[in-house]
Write a structure and sequence with these properties.
Structural class: alpha/beta
Largest sheet: 8 strands, mixed
Number of strands: 14
Radius of gyration: 45 Å
Number of helices: 17
Strand content: 5-15%
Amino acid sequence: MGFTNARATARAEEIARQTKTARRVLVARSALRAVPMNIITAALLSIFMLGHVEPMAHAAWFVLVTGAALLRLGTMLRARRADRAPTDREIAAYIAFSALIGTCWGAVPLLVGPMAPPIVSQACALVISGMVAGAVMTSAAEQRVAMAFAVPALGLWAAALAFTGSVFGYLMVLMLGAFLLALRGLSQAYSQTLIDAVKTNVELEETRRETEEQSRAMASLAERQEGAARAAEEHARANAAILANMSHELGTPLNGILGMSQLLDEAGLGEDQRRMVRRIRESGETLSRLVGDILDVSRIQAGRLELVLDDLTAREIGDRARRFAGPLAKEKGLGFEVRYSGDADRALRADETRIMQIVKIFLANAVRFTETGGVSLGIDLKAGGGDYAALRLEVRDTGSGVPESARDRLFDAFSAEKVDEAIREAGTGLGLHLASRLAELMNGRVGYEPTESGSVFFLELRLRMSSKADRYAENERLDLTSRRLRVLAAEADPSRRSVLLGYLKSFNCVVTCAATGREVSEALTAAAYDAVVLGLVLEDCTPEDAAADIRALPSTNSLTPVVRLDPDLELPLRELGGDIYVRAPVSGEPLLEGLRRALESDPTAAASLRRIAS
């Protein structure tokens, strides 16, 4: 409360200070125009006064008017030359000389007298009223100056009219009083307008300062976030590299153990010895598989995992799964089958090794925790829009299922600070976590669905269908090492631009900013970007025009995915006309999801964004 009162007091003081300065600056500017007006008007009126005023009195009056006007100008010259507001002393002198000039003009009717011809009286009335009105309007910013001129001028004129003793004289006195009040009202209205203008200017300046401070704070926060994210990523990569090296070190002696156990198994040992050797071999194989999983997780975290794209079919996946899980299920007395839905022989572009790695994790766990019944693999392929197809692989078992307490963090349990006891005892945390990370790299997802008599683990992928004109060569490697997306962010408002910059940098994107539609077109013409984010305001055009200009570019950059902000959007995210719309004010998750959708057609970009965001 105290801070608010202090701020209001400071604002009031600033308004008063600026109003005072503005008043005086306006008075100083009007002084230069008032001098020639007084001298020229005095010379013209002197023509009418000739022969009706004593020559000495006439000359004294003219010299006094001219001298006072020049002296009044002199009080303002120093302030004008220094381009500053007049001081209190200078204003006081200006008011005094204004009163003297007003007195000189008011004395004219007394000098002329009531016996002057009507034309002379009319000329005096016209000149005095005009000079008073002009003085009030030019000095309305400082009412003391205006009244110092008007009161003696109209007062002496009224006195001259009252001395006539006529009814018309008194009526004229009343009219002059009303004239003075009207001029005073106009002066006050002008003064209030000035105060309102200064107040508005102060508020706008304060808002501008606050906006600049907020923009600087947002930019500083974005820089700190970027630095923290970069440091955290480097730390994670260093830890992952250490873990990868440890995995390699563990793999060397494990290979020796597995090799020697196999030789011992074939060396004609007794039944008890062979059983112990097989137990050693099985434990070694399990440990070797865990070391391999650790190595893959560390590669993903370090950004060193590569996806190898090749042609594969749903039938090939099923055949490999049958060769892997069939013997395991048979050994436990379980049934195993593969079911197909859709075109099982349609060629797809994907990393078969990584897909099978996920499937094997699901199948191994299903066989391991199923005592009666069987395990099945369902493969469903549905053609999607364009050259893409949706592939769903689901492993169904009749086992004990997953405890309800472990379902929420089933695929993230291994990365949690505290691993659920059911998952720890089952020993499935690392494999399921690896399956989730691999699915994310392939722009897909994994999940779990409980059933009445077991569990269903599934993998869903959106894959390109293979063709001879495929742009990927055989066994092409998609290198995801340290990939950073290039994003062009267009927004004229500094605050919103800072917010966009902060979010995009936190997604580990390399961001180029633009404030106009022309800058957007020039940037896309000069370089390639993974995506364009169009804000709410651009300096030279609307976001709709900017989007149209992007699509009209005479190059492949016209196909750059566009994410647009929309304040009128009811849902957080919407796809319309090929562009992705995100509701404004923007927040992190909808913007990240919007980028993911916009980049679905670019596997490497989408994988990099998911890897960075995870």
